[in-house]
Amino acid sequence: MFTGIVEELGEITAVENLGDASRFRLRGPVVTEGAKHGDSIAVNGVCLTVVEHEGDEFTADVMAETLNRSSLGALAVGSRVNLERPTAVGTRLGGHIVQGHVDGTGQILERKPSDNWEIIKISLPADLARYVVEKGSITVDGVSLTVVDAGPDYFTISLIPTTLALTTLGIKQPGDPVNLEVDVIAKYVERLLAAKDAQHANDPANAVSKESAQ
Q1: So where are the chain's domains?
Q2: Which architecture, in CATH terms, is 104-192?
Q3: What does each C-alpha distance from 179 to 107, 144, 189 come to in angstroms?
Q4: pLDDT band at 189 (very low <50, low <70, confident <90, very high)
């Protein structure tokens, strides 16, 4: 589990095409400290597994499903990426619960700079819109953020100078893709309510009540 608090801006140093997958080599001095084979590291919000670790670099394999459902397929040598190690038990949860399981991608639509912050408008896939609410949490490229405004096919976020300086959101431009992960709690609540409604509809007692009412 992650919290959406990016630890450092890393860099893609090599990309190997494996046919139905890709192997990335990434540089990140902070997240590689103490890293070992099998560890998890979030790359632009996608939970990847460390295959090899040498110095301040590590490699990770990315399967076709991940490449198709995230923006990682657009990465190339020199691309900057947000990196975060999993949260440790007993530490503060600085952002919100982030799984590193990307739900879809959005696109930067526009940027509105101000003196002390910047508003970014991002497109929102139709199947994710119901999970995004004003002042709720959303993960964008692995960054835990608060939704300012939630529209039918977009949402906006407000970024402080620290976020602009220390994450990819400071350099992404209109047209660039971003990974989106909605609040997992909203998805669980939806599933539980749907199951409850289905159970209620199939309860014979309810059918008898309806017949009596008629």
Answers
A1: 8-84, 104-192
A2: Beta Barrel (2.40)
A3: 9, 12, 22
A4: confident
